[in-house]
Write a structure and sequence with these properties.
With about 80 residues, the protein is of the alpha+beta class. It has a single domain, classed as Beta-grasp domain (Ubiquitin-like (UB roll)). Strands 2-1-5-3-4 form a 5-stranded mixed β-sheet. A hairpin with a 2-residue loop joins strand 3 and strand 4. It is globular, with a radius of gyration of 12 Å. The model has no long low-confidence stretch (mean pLDDT about 95).
Length: about 80
């Protein structure tokens, strides 16, 4: 079990109703964590549309989670 701190932005924040939370997970990777959260909170974006950063650095979906990691999920954004 690994405790991580998760931050949400844009649509993910709206769908979760929180900007951040700490949680314990059994999944080993960033992609596994997103899929776990997607199922739990009914996120509408598939994992391949969301970027992740761990401890302030963008990482691949296969990045292994470590105790105390700060994970940020960043959905695609539009702007002008």
């Amino acid at each position: 079990m690994t405790r991580v701190h998760v931050q949400y932005f844009a649509i993910l924040r709206e769908q979760r109703g929180l900007t951040a939370e700490s949680l314990v997970t059994n999944v080993p990777t960033v992609s596994g964590l997103y899929e776990e959260l997607r199922a739990r909170h009914a996120f509408t974006l598939p994992g391949n549309r969301v970027r992740a950063a761990v401890n302030d650095a963008f990482v691949p979906a296969s990045e292994v989670l470590r105790e105390g990691d700060r994970v940020v999920f960043i959905p695609p954004v539009a702007g002008g």
